[in-house]
Amino acid sequence: MGSHGLVSRARKEFIPTGKQLAAQVWDQIFKGVDLTAHDVILNFNDYLCKLVDTEYQLYLEYEEQCMTQGVSKLVLDPEIGLDFPNVRRIIENVLRVMRGTTLNDIEKLAEVWAKMRPLYQRVEQSFEQSRKTRAGGSAQYHLQSLIERAGYAGEFETQQILNGKIDFLFPSHQAWERDRRRCVIVSIKRSLRERYKQVFEELSIAQSTVYLFVTETYEEAERDITAPKVKGLNEQNVYLVVRDEIKNMRFAKDVNVIGFTAFISEELPNHRARWTNLLQASK
After folding, report:
1. Is residue 7 part of a domain?
2. 249 FRET partner, CA 20 to 30 A, in 38, 119, 125, 214?
């Protein structure tokens, strides 16, 4: 088994799941705070940004611990290490160099770096790939909690299969089958990158209103959210929902780009008036 299998095992062993990590962040930010619907709607942009940013930093801390300690602990485990003989051999050779007496400290450091560098590069690449997927997936928990606290508990379903899997469906799958024109689809990602093209296949469901949340920071959006991408989403009748700062500073005139605050205070209430009858009919 290679280093990618080792990293996957180390992540499961030493890094909390997205749901566990989200719970830690909520406890860290809102412990002892009684959030009202008014509070959430008024501070929706600030709360969502703080939640996803804090969790991302916390995740990076867990990831660093996993890379610097977890991988080695697994490899040196008498039972687990047998599954990764090549990696174990590298680490055992490094330990012998560190314990040796024939080299001075500088020479030991050079020898250790030479032996560990190829492994570290492979491990870092594996972590980088999983980091993008993990960061986007965990944001769903924060958005769901905020929307529920804003007064929409019971008015949406998550992880529904329509044309593809979507994160949120308002107000329900049953209501969507009755009249999809009055339903709302929401998907959330960490960034657009090239994956935005997949959104057309995942979310382009005729007659439904579609919102794509992107939680990346202003600096990230400067490189990632381009005019051609915004235009492409608009042509597919997809609204792009971004941080208020990004909306106000870069896309103030683009009607298909919406800030977090406008989504919770304007978009959802307007749609709610249209789906209320569907929700009542399905009960």
Report:
1. yes
2. 38
SS (HEC) of the chain:
CCHHHHHHHHHHHHCCCHHHHHHHHHHHHHCCCCCCHHHHHHCHHHHHHHHHHHHHHHHHHHHHHHHHHHHHHHHHCCCHHHHCHHHHHHHHHHHHHHHCCCCCHHHHHHHHHHHHHHHHHHHHHHHHHHHHHHHHHHHHHHHHHHHHHHHHCCCCEEEEECCCEEEEEECCHHHHHHCHHHCEEEEEECCCHHHHHHHHHHHCCCCCEEEEEECCCHHHHHHHCCHHHHHHHHHCCEEEEECHHHHHHHCCCCCCEEEHHHHHHHHHHHHHHHHHHHHHHHC
193 and 102 assigned to the same domain: no
Summarize pLDDT for 234-262 with one digit per residue, the tens. 888 889 999 999 999 999 999 999 999 99
Least confident of 68-77, 98-107, 138-147, 259-268: 68-77
